[in-house]
Amino acid sequence: MAPEALAQVLRPLQNLFGGNGYPNLLVGLGVADDAAVYKLNDEQAIIHTTDFFTPVVDDPYDYGAVAAANSMSDVYAMGGEVLFALNIGAFPARMEPALITEILRGGAEKVIEAGAAIAGGHTVTDDEPKYGLAVTGLVHPDRYFTKGGARPGDALILTKPLGTGTISTALKRDIARPEHVAPMVESMKRLNRTAAQVAQVTGGIKAVTDITGFGLLGHAIEMSKAGGVKFIFEMNQIPLLAGAAIYAEDFIFPGGASNNKLYFDKEVIFAPTLSEAQQMILWDPQTSGGLLLALPPVRLDDFLSLCAEREQPAWVIGYVAEGHGLEILP
User: Fold this and answer.
1) What is the DSSP track for 266-324?
2) Helix and strand tally (H, E) in the chain?
3) What was the pLDDT predicted at 167?
4) What pTM was estimated for this model as a whole?
5) 30 contacts: CB under 8 Å, gap ≥ 6
């Protein structure tokens, strides 16, 4: 759903499950975050989330793997580890069973890579294929991440390049180059698990989200609002997937990019030298995008060193300041 429509739908429900009636619900509908967190005891809290979508790539195995990585990402955005997952599927009656098997196999092998298990699921018949997971994870109740907590002076780190929306849209139009599609698929299939583990080992990190349907700027706005601070990005430091700038210049974007811009644009100031294509790629909805983290300066070197040791990409793309909203520098 578009951001404005989703906010309108959820608004009447936000206060139903908060307050004293649900003291162990640490993160729920009351604040916009990536997943629910429910405290079981002093050492354990459950993370639960669900996600599914229509195909973004042609190969059924890759589609299943990308959808699974995307579904598990919210657990990592909260700082946890995946325990198990349930398949969610909607497939046309005429679809070949072998193709469905490949989708489920792609998802299952990605869950295995996460050190977790598929424990069941549910399917329905639908004219358009859809696949994803309901995911359960675990985290210490004192060590989960949220979108809030960023403080002035923090560095802003991104762990995957942008561009999956524009490249996948070009793929749907049969104009994407193979040398651009393959790196996009590999990026989407990459788990955010290592990045989350590095953040936990580094310590002192509270503000984290993953970049998905609202694009970099939409999710960054949610973080900045939750922390009561201003985010400043430097465009020349933001990594892009190979080919993303080319398709952006041709203004090849999914409809969600315009929806994101319409809803969040009032919160953002762009440098006048940035082109419309550069601005739009920051609104580009991402599938299985990376983590965006706000790191205290004293933790930055340790975090980057651990990322390098574990072959986890990480880019410093800006910093946190006093104020509100977002500012995008050249």
Assistant:
1) GGEEE-TTS-HHHHHHHH---SS--EEEEE-HHHHHHHHHHHHHTT---EEEEEEESSS
2) 11, 13
3) 98
4) 0.94
5) 14, 15, 17, 18
